Amino acid sequence: MGHCHGSRHAYCPTTPLIIPNLPTFYYEYLYAIWGERIDELMNGIIFENVCKSYGETAVVKDLNMAIQEGERLILLGPSGCGKTTTLRMVAGLENITAGTLKMGGQVVNTVEPGARNIAMVFQNYALYPHMTIWENITFGLFIQKIPIEEIKARTKQALEILNLSGYEQRKPNELSGGQKQRVALCRSLVKQAPYFLLDEPLSNLDAQLRLQARTELVKIHNLYRPTFIYVTHDQVEAMTVGQRIAIMNQGALQQLDTPDVIYQRPANTFVASFIGSPPMNLLQGAFRDGALWIAGSRVNPPTKWHTLLAEHQELWIGIRPEQCCLSDTPMLHGQIEFVEHLGSQRCIHLRLHQNGQRLLCMLPADQPIPTGTVGVSFSWQHVNGFDGHVGKNIGLPNRISHNYAC
Ligand SMILES: Nc1ncnc2c1ncn2[C@@H]1O[C@H](COP(=O)(O)OP(=O)(O)OP(=O)(O)O)[C@@H](O)[C@H]1O
């Protein structure tokens, strides 16, 4: 277990804390997650109680978040939730109102942007119109006085990865939007900075190009594994590019975890209804006399759940649409109101009989769909329960499959 060499180690289980000024539980929490790899984490980015306000308005609230060195982290959330502000604080483009931001083990609250060793890609490509593509990409490297052979080698490699070889002598106005976006990525890539910050870099691309660019982003990351923070409000992008996703709402971090865990075990009702298309069904639940009532129907949950359910009594029961099926021995009954055709699947909109709540079921397109009233079942292993008052996941023991690719 122990690895107490060097001075930047944050926590060693056999000795007291080495770095002062942080609560003990914080290191214990980090160590529990990262174990021996805590070294890498300390070289990453750590937010400690970070707040940002504009006048009286708090836009980032008490953010605690540790990003591992070399990790691809996505900041995801609805418009205005504070993603860009968070990213800009890392870049040094916004002051931090309160709290501490650390990069590479150093507090950087007052460090100038130019001294933070970051590469940043913005939504608008910000290319110099009078320069060629090659000049746009290499300009910053010449300023850094990097040897010409090194500049040529880095640029050649980046142009190849981003399919831009042959475009070196064009001007930005001779490129399509997607190509300009790739030049902007290329220009950041050649810096080989340890921190790579991206703010909605694909938002100007059409669906086809976005798909291709997602793969390129992962390739870029794999090339030299910078610590990568990527802001988006597109959950497909988040799920496919991110190794972990931080979900924000109204300036507060809601959940920070792998895409699988976030999808299958959302931390609260906000995450449950934000992630997934269509989103998770949240049905009213109540636990009385050993039975669970879901949307007004009595059902029998696994006996081992009873203690947990009894602690909450009023609940939201979360069931993903694709985990519902039509059944001859149903748990719930409803009236089909609408059928959406989505190619390989169909989304059935039901109005439940007992309490009139709506339930969405995702079914294979080749499954015959009866008309009128239908019965629906689901398997307990995929069900989530949320406290009826505060909306927090109560941790019913359901099954999570960890099958995402790093
Ligand atoms: N300079 C500023 N002065 C006052 N309020 C600001 C300023 N910059 C941002 N805000 C507010 O802070 C909140 C967070 O903005 P931010 O740009 O971080 O959100 P976001 O999650 O990135 O949104 P989007 O996805 O729409 O870009 C918003 O309500 C915004 O109006």
From TrEMBL:
Please give the InterPro entries that the UniProt record associates with this protein: AAA+_ATPase (IPR003593), ABC_transporter-like_ATP-bd (IPR003439), ABC_transporter-like_CS (IPR017871), ABC_transpr_MalK-like (IPR015855), ABC_transpr_MalK/UgpC-like (IPR047641), Mo/tungstate-bd_C_term_dom (IPR008995), NA-bd_OB-fold (IPR012340), OB_MalK-like (IPR040582)
What this protein is called in its record is ABC transporter ATP-binding protein
Instruction: Cite the Pfam families for this sequence.
Output: ABC_tran, OB_MalK
Q: Which domain of life is it from?
A: Bacteria
Alphabetized GO MF terms:
ATP binding
Describe the location of the ABC transporter domain by residue ranges.
Answer: 45-275
Lipid metabolism as UniProt keyword: no
Tell me which species this is from.
Pelosinus baikalensis
KW Cell membrane (keyword) present: yes
- Keywords, A to Z? ATP-binding, Cell membrane, Membrane, Nucleotide-binding, Translocase, Transport
